[in-house]
Design a protein that fits this description.
mainly alpha; two-stranded antiparallel sheet; two-stranded parallel sheet; binds L-captopril; binds zinc ion
Length: 685
Amino acid sequence: MKSLPRKPKHRTALLAVAAAAFALALAGCSRSPSPGDAASPSTQAPADETADQFVARVNREMREIYTELSSAQWLSSTYINGDSELVAAKAHERWLTRLNGWIEQSRRFEGQQMSADTARAIGMLKLMTSMPAPRDPAKLAELTRIATRMEGMYGSGTYCKGEGEQKECRQLGELEDVLRNNRDYEAQLDAWRGWHTISVPMREDYVRFVQLVNEGAKDMGFADAGEVWRSGYDMAPAQIAAETDRLWSQVKPLYEQLHCYARTRLVAKYGQDRGQVAGGMLPAPLMGNMWQQDWSNLWDMLQPYPGAGSLDITAALQARHRQNYMEELERLADPTDGAARVEAERAAQRATAVEMTRRAEDFYVSLGMPQLPESYWEKTQFIKPRDRDVVCHASAWDMNLGGSPAGEGQEAVGPDVRTKMCIKPNEEDFTTIYHELGHVYYYLAYNAQPPIFQGGAHDGFHEAIGDTIVLAMTPQYLASIDLVDAQQQSHEALINAQMRMALSKVAFLPFGLMIDRWRWGVFDGSITPDEYNKAWWDLKARYQGVAPIQPRGEEFFDPGAKYHVPGNTPYTRYFLSHVLQFQFYKALCDAAGFKGPLYECSFYGNKAAGEKFLAMLEQGSHQPWQKTLKELTGGEQMDASAVLEYFAPLQEWLQQQNEGQSCGWTGAVATADTDTNADREQPAQ
Ligand code: X8Z
Ligand code: ZN
């Protein structure tokens, strides 16, 4: 589910914080409500109901209607066509209508005395969706149609070139493979530009979408939809914006060093003209990733000490895949049968994906967490289906909020959790599985909470769980599972290991910020539709120091080529997660009694660390996140000093490497407009 109702993965939130979360997340039990009922905004609210009774009823009703929403959204994400789109939009319409009804009913209790829990639950209702919907039923329905359509456009996005017999069509996965593996300049440009054609037709829908969610936000008493998003952090909305600035200023010097080093290497590879863009920025199509959010795929170019501690996880996974394929071939009655060989290849892909997922599950189980339920293995989408379009962007789903106990005449229903990915045997997908299982274990851990509190402490917590485990995937851990060779202990090997982590974690930080800087500006009107693309590239320049190699004018809609924009998933959560995960990691290393330097710690197999982690997950969002953070780490603030502690050896090494270079960038961005400057004021707040 998503954002609100949608993908849970992100969803985390459920609550107040969570806003989105829940959208889906809820659900359960029961049989499906009649559509008429669900669509009525004010379903029987007893006149003499107390606030406590109201919250209990909302929790009950949520469970009742949630499964319809999650099932419809699962279908529309795993089988994109006009029918599934229609069904998902309708289910979402019913959900948002009901949510608006609860919010309306809750106004009766304004100013009344009530318990802290009840007040929190009521406050969270308004934050439960990242898609605040207008009260006007026609507009609400229009909103859900647009949202479903945009996500379908992203999932089915296809770039074709050539005519007739020469025509060649590729989807995101194939275009990403080019950026991942092919260092040919023209091939990368073509793949990058090609993917950015798919979002051009979304622009009009997005403009309308913004009008509609803003109307919904105003109906609820917020200034705009961005303010709704910023209200889920147990602090004033303006304060979370300032918090992200503070955290960014802590880590920015480290990012600038990494940027400088990457630029030197790119220039060495492609030359002065092609290896950088005017002002010293990095060329967007050459960073190994469609959005320049993770530079791990440039390992061949950026590896500090080739040969000192090989960390080629992708090669090891591909070898496993080949082995699985050979085994499938051996089972064939006629190994020359072409069709049977194709089936064998599919079976091997699935087997490899399942093996990778089992490996990730094993880490959680080693901490004392339960095995995933059997239904997870039956219902998960592991690989890309051949016969239909799906949304490949990875997500984790809680289909029924933990199921429900047996009622009169009803059987107990267990939790139904799933992930949806198009797994390939490479390092990026391998770590993404660990990330997704973090969401799944969070769902399972907080399923005992009432539906309204089934969310992350805040949405950044939800994103940080699996990534905390990824930090514990040290070279020693990877060697222990036979993915890399036994590791040498040397400074060179350490720097290699740190670089591997930095290309994913440090490179991400400014990207994690800029997306919502853009959307906050779009929602508050400081970025208008006639400058959507310009503002996007201004922010890319300002925060990431990344630029396209040729002007990208308003005939494009480049934000729509990033999943979370058409999918309407708030993105600040990922920035926060990239800070919090280091805090969690440090706390769990302490719990495990680890005494060495932070970057060497793996708590794989440590039950004391696992117990502490699980205790945090079980809290869900029933209390302010500051309290939950304190219980785990001893502090109540998000703080990037653990990031800096972790990367201290690399930062020192980078400074040496960059000596004599003039680092940093200025921002004359290659948009159609030439007055763009990376240093201009940020659009939103
Ligand atoms: O969207 C995701 C996850 C699902 S919550 C795969 N991530 C962000 C992205 O891909 O843009 C994880 C890291 C950032
Ligand atoms: Zn996630």
